[in-house]
């Protein structure tokens, strides 16, 4: 009979957010029969992990023994032992020698005279014998939570048995509260109660992204990202603390004001208030000043009037409220929650007094201005002016989130009739929040201004923030544009701002390059007329990027105009600025070294300025550059970094997932690549963003190709082809999917369509001078020729393509050409044909491709490919392109337009357009004439 004693309910899956790696390590240990000790500070999620693992592994055990100690019971001897063995000892008692049986019964029941002191060895042996007897019947799992409260007698007995269970199917799964990292004395003490090979698993704080995910699982989804950031900071990444803070904030009708800490719920204050009550009144005042300071030190506390700071902080260290600083004069709270609870408990007058003291004591002018604001009530023009200056200084230092906070404080202290007014300061704060990646905060500020603003300039500026804050989801704010145009009237400066955003709408929502280019050019002309250089530069940069993607011949000239002096430093490094436009033109023109230099400089500058959205964008650009150069490991690291930052900030998640998918498929994990590509597709479809949808589908097609799913790759990449035709994208260097589609088509034996893809792309690549694309297309065409039996010609073309790609520095494409060439030579005698391909893939760290090449090298040599006879078709169809010929042949078979669309994975609309071209080329008028052609061919 299987026994599971006091089995708790199965843990909620949302409570193990961010613990996948920890669970994986623990599962590996348990699966091979080992034991696990989970440790970490209070509230970090140890018990949740313990319950999760116990629920998973209880099914494999015949007997599950459980105990969960508490602090109030830790002085009672043998209580944990009774929890573990009380219900099973009777089943094996008759197998124990009498002295052991008596000692165990005495310990479990408290009856008899035997004690650990008088009969210690018998009791130790009794526990060991009991576990051995249970293990003889089947695997045993011991689950012990809160090991730190285990009574010392039970802990000693458990340790004695654990050290002697070697080889028996007994696993221990325990959790203990510790404050130090792995390897400290705390863990050593508790490990003595577990088997020697026990694996310790440290449960660390959650990241900000994981805290956001945890809050979302619990329904706290309406919190701004800036608030989630504060929750993460105040909770220290502790999930229990984060959930309590999230609950209070979600239930609060009024969010915290800028510069104010989060309200700390009573449930969390109780964790530290009993220790705070032990402090003297003066010590509490000193700690309050420390909690209000940004980076408190003893010198700062002295400057703020706390004369006995050393002694008072020493008292707090002794009580565990402050962490001892081994190096330097810093004053650091043991946990951010201690500081937050201390500040929350103080009265308003006490807080203002602390900030007033710090407003003169702090050495940093930005910090002094902030404290002055928090020490002042009501409006005060002088305070507002100092805060405005501090916000500008923070902006220049590359701290836009600080600038936004200071700007809102300045608005609060600005009189209604002042110049600049409170709403002007709020709008500047909203723009700073956009730069910092806090789009939801920016949007909320702008909406607040729109509720009362009457000045056209203020209203249009606020509308622009609302549109910018929408990011790729610009379709969701489509109703804003008519209102913004109405507010702009005939003012060229305001109209330039609106038309610049209309250019983005044309691209993202309509997918219309021509309209996008026209709107951007119009915005540039309006801005030039108004003398607003910044807007003119942004519009010219966007026009240049659009022309580059269109393959428009004016792109270099427009880039030159956008780079012309006088320039705006922020526009120069903005992700939609001239530097970004030049990078895109360089990388599409195969100038990889210049592209890398350009994007690296841009990334360095936006990091200095704290421009989060631009940082996400440029990390993607650098990852793309490294991937094209064949540095797959470096590209993977950069793409993952971009994705982490995108998820932390909520900016560009779909685009970063797309780039990470390409990097994973080339140098990482193919399954993860497909998951990321699907995520990118979902983002693009949800946002209605056709431009990124085509890129995301391209990434999905590439991942499927690498995974060996040629049919799936064809489905994805045919959609890309159809999308880009409708969008007017003509430059094959934009998405670089054509070679992958042709290769996938060859694998599914659609040779005619593969050749057509190559032909169309080659004509465009030749016109635009896209050298690396021509090399990729040569590789793809060689695969078509090889499939038709032209093996020697294909080999010559592949060798030429490989040389061309190597010369251009496209390392991964070079390796792929070598791999294709090896496939043609595999049946020939001589050295291993895959040696060069594996060497090149290894150099690129292209692990998925390397695995393919290694498998191919071990496979039996294939037979030489023979020429494949082309099916007989009417001679009249020879004038048609490949897709046109396929459509015509299916019409000859009697297929309807819908059936043809399904067979060729294209839309009905595309079938109709193709048939129109067929009629024109063949000089006929209808489907009936095509059928007649077929009939004539069969009778001749």
Automatic annotation (TrEMBL):
This is Transcriptional regulator. Residues 873-938 form the HTH luxR-type domain. One of its GO terms (biological process) is regulation of DNA-templated transcription. One of its GO terms (cellular component) is cytoplasm. InterPro entries: AAA+_ATPase (IPR003593), AAA_16 (IPR041664), P-loop_NTPase (IPR027417), Sig_transdc_resp-reg_C-effctor (IPR016032), TPR-like_helical_dom_sf (IPR011990), Tscrpt_reg_LuxR_C (IPR000792), WH-like_DNA-bd_sf (IPR036388). Residues 777-804 form a coiled coil. One of its GO terms (molecular function) is ATP binding. Keywords: ATP-binding, Coiled coil, Nucleotide-binding.
């Amino acid at each position: 009979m299987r026994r599971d004693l006091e089995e708790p309910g199965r843990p909620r899956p949302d409570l193990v957010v961010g613990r996948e790696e920890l669970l994986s390590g623990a599962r590996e240990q348990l699966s091979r029969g080992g034991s696990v000790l989970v440790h970490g500070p209070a509230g970090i999620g140890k018990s949740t992990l313990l319950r999760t693992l116990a629920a998973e592994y209880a099914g494999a055990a015949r007997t599950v023994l459980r105990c969960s100690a508490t602090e109030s019971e830790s002085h009672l001897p043998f209580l944990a032992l009774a929890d573990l063995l009380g219900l099973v000892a009777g089943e094996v008692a008759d197998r124990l020698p009498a002295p052991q049986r008596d000692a165990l019964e005495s310990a479990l029941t408290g009856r008899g005279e035997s004690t650990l002191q008088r009969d210690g060895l018998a009791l130790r042996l009794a526990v060991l014998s009991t576990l051995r007897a249970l293990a003889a019947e089947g695997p045993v799992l011991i689950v012990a939570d809160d090991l730190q409260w285990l009574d010392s007698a039970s802990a000693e007995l458990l340790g004695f048995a654990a050290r002697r269970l070697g080889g028996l199917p007994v696993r221990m799964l325990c959790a203990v509260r510790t404050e130090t990292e792995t390897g400290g004395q705390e863990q050593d003490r508790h490990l003595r109660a577990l088997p020697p090979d026990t694996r310790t698993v440290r449960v660390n704080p959650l990241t900000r992204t994981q805290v956001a995910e945890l809050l979302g699982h619990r329904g706290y989804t309406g919190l701004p990202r800036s608030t989630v950031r504060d929750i993460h900071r105040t909770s220290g990444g502790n999930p229990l603390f984060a959930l309590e803070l999230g609950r209070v904030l979600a239930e609060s009708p009024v969010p915290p004001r800028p510069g104010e800490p989060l309200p700390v719920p009573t449930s969390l204050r109780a964790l530290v208030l009993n220790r705070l009550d032990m402090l003297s009144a003066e010590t509490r005042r000193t700690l309050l000043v420390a909690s209000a300071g940004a980076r408190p030190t003893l010198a700062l506390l002295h400057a703020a009037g706390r004369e006995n700071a050393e002694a008072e902080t020493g008292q707090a260290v002794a009580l565990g409220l402050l962490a001892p600083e081994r190096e330097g004069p810093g004053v650091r709270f043991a946990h951010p929650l201690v500081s937050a609870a201390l500040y929350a408990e103080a009265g308003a007058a006490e807080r203002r007094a602390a900030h007033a003291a710090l407003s003169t004591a702090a050495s940093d002018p930005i910090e002094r201005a902030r404290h002055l604001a928090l020490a002042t009530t009501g409006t005060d023009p002088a305070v507002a002016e100092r805060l405005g200056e501090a916000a500008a200084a923070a902006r220049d230092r590359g701290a836009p989130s600080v600038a936004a906070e200071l700007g809102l404080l300045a608005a609060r202290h600005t009189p209604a009739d002042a110049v600049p007014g409170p709403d002007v300061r709020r709008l500047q704060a909203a723009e700073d929040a956009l730069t910092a990646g806090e789009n939801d905060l920016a949007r909320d500020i702008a909406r607040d201004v729109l509720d009362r603003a009457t000045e056209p300039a203020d209203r249009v500026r606020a509308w622009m923030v609302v549109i910018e804050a929408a990011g790729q989801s610009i379709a969701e704010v489509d109703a804003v544009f008519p209102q913004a145009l109405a507010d702009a009237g005939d003012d060229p400066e305001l109209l330039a701002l609106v038309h610049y955003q209309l250019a983005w709408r044309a691209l993202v929502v309509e997918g219309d390059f021509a309209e996008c280019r026209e709107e951007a050019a119009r915005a540039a002309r309006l801005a030039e007329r108004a003398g607003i250089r910044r807007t003119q530069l942004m519009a010219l940069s966007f026009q240049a990027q659009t022309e580059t993607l269109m393959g428009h011949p004016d792109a270099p000239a427009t880039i030159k105009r956008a780079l012309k002096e006088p320039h705006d430093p922020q526009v120069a490094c903005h992700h939609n600025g001239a530097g970004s436009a030049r990078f895109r033109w360089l990388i599409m023109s195969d100038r990889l070294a210049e592209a890398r230099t350009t994007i690296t400089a841009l990334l360095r500058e936006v990091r200095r300025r704290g421009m989060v959205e631009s940082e996400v964008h440029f990390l993607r650009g650098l990852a793309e550059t490294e991937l094209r150069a064949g540095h797959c490991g470096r590209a993977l690291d950069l793409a993952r970094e971009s994705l982490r930052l995108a998820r932390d900030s909520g900016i560009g998640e779909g685009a970063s997932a797309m780039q990470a998918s390409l990097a994973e498929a080339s140098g990482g994990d193919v399954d993860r690549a497909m998951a990321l590509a699907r995520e990118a597709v979902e983002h693009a479809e949800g946002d209605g963003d056709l431009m990124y949808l085509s890129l995301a589908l391209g990434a999905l097609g590439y991942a499927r190709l690498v995974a060996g799913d040629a049919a799936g790759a064809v489905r994805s990449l045919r959609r890309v082809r159809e999308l880009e035709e409708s969008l007017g994208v003509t430059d094959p260097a934009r998405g670089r999917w054509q070679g992958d589609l042709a290769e996938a088509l060859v694998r599914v034996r659609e040779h005619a369509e593969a050749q057509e893809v190559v032909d169309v792309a080659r004509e465009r690549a030749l016109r635009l001078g896209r050298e690396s694309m021509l090399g990729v297309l040569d590789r793809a065409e060689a695969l078509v020729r090889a499939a038709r039996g032209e093996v020697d010609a294909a080999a010559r073309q592949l060798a030429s393509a490989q040389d061309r790609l190597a010369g251009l520095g496209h390392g991964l494409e070079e390796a792929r050409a070598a791999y294709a060439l090896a496939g043609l030579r595999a049946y020939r005698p001589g050295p291993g044909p895959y040696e060069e391909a594996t060497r090149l893939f290894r150099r690129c760290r292209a692990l998925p491709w390397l695995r393919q090449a290694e498998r191919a090298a071990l496979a039996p040599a294939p037979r030489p490919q023979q020429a494949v006879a082309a099916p007989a078709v009417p001679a009249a169809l020879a004038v048609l392109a490949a897709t046109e010929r396929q459509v015509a042949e299916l019409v000859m078979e009697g297929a309807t337009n819908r059936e043809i669309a399904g067979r060729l994975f294209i839309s009905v609309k595309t079938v109709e357009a193709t048939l129109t071209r067929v009629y024109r080329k063949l000089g006929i008028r209808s489907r009936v004439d095509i059928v007649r052609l077929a009939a004539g061919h069969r009778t001749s």
